[in-house]
Design brief:
With about 325 residues, the protein is α/β, with parallel strands linked by helices. About 40% of the residues lie in helices and about 20% in strands. It starts with 5 loop residues before the first strand and ends in an 8-residue tail after the last helix.
């Protein structure tokens, strides 16, 4: 008998790679996506919620609630996001039919806590934006570490250069205080840093294949990814369809794809030039699991789930 799907809560800031992670979690048989919360990161939290709701509507999944979370980091104000990577709207100008958001919906922090209580000991959080909502949830519900199965975080750059500064990855840079609090907490955290995500990307031929799909969600993702790839060409000199957020999602549901991990206490620099830097801490305890390598087939697994008819050898 197949195992029951894992209840998943997605905390995100959509964002093109967030959109791809969301599509993956909707389509994999190993996940039961129960809710989506948004946070200020790639775009503001309200835009992110509208983007997530539009994707869910396009997928025919209006049953999954979307909640707006933190509009600013724990300290300071929202920096304005990353329009040079994701476009001003977060989706590279790809227009989707708008979806309504509930005016009386709970905020994302309360939504997360309620789902954790409902699925006590089973809920797995996939956090692919700044960790503000999680930090606030820990403040509101001290028992959260016991209520959650665990959290898979896309964030940080341990032994590689950051993508916002030489020291910092975008999610941890956007709210370093929240990242530091969550990683030092009692929550079981698995971090999927740039060290591993930069090695997993889609090929141009695979994105082209997505563009020919009969599924409007997949075709929309292909258009977003093309924008994403061209922005990488402008920034890095090469078209790269990086799978940062989707890799965290696939490793949360297909843990056998994780090849190597390391456990040690870490901290996140919250101030100064190295703001957002992920560093090994000299303190004892509070070990965090860091994914060091994942199977080369991870990108193919993501594509096969989103686009089952795709040839993984493209």
């Amino acid at each position: 008998m197949p195992e029951a799907p894992t209840p998943i809560y997605l905390d995100c800031d959509p964002g093109i790679d967030d959109a791809t992670a969301l599509a993956f979690l909707l389509r994999t048989a190993r996940a039961a996506l129960v809710g989506v919360g948004t946070v200020a990161g790639n775009v503001d939290a309200h835009t992110g919620a509208r983007n997530a709701a539009a994707l869910l509507q396009l997928a025919g999944r209006n049953d999954i609630p979307v909640a707006i979370g933190a509009t600013h980091p724990l300290n300071g104000v929202f920096s304005g996001g990353f329009p040079h990577v994701h476009g001003k709207d977060g989706f590279g100008g790809v227009s989707l039919p708008p979806a309504a958001l509930s005016e009386d919906a709970e905020d994302a922090t309360e939504q997360l806590i309620n789902f954790a209580r409902h699925h006590a000991g089973r809920l797995r959080v996939v956090a692919v934006g700044p960790l503000t909502n999680l930090a606030l949830a820990l403040q509101r519900e001290p028992a959260l570490p016991e209520l959650l199965d665990g959290v898979f975080v896309m964030g940080g750059a341990l032994d590689v250069r950051g993508n916002v500064t030489p020291f910092a990855e975008a999610n941890f840079w956007s709210d370093p205080d929240a990242a530091d609090q969550v990683l030092r907490s009692r929550i079981s955290v698995t971090v999927v840093p740039l060290d591993v995500t930069t090695h997993h990307a889609l090929a141009s031929s695979q994105v082209d294949r997505m563009a020919t799909s009969a599924d409007p969600l997949v075709r929309s993702l292909a258009s977003m990814l093309r924008f994403y790839g061209e922005r990488h060409r402008a920034l890095l000199g090469d078209v790269i369809f990086a799978l940062h957020d989707p890799l965290a999602a696939v490793l949360a549901t297909h843990t056998e794809l994780i090849l190597d991990t390391a456990n040690f206490p870490v901290r996140v620099e919250t101030r100064g030039q190295a703001r957002g830097a992920l560093k090994v801490s000299e303190e004892q305890g509070g070990d965090v699991r860091i994914v060091r390598t994942a199977r080369e087939s991870s990108a193919a697994e993501i594509l096969q789930v989103i686009l089952p008819e795709a040839n993984a050898d493209d």
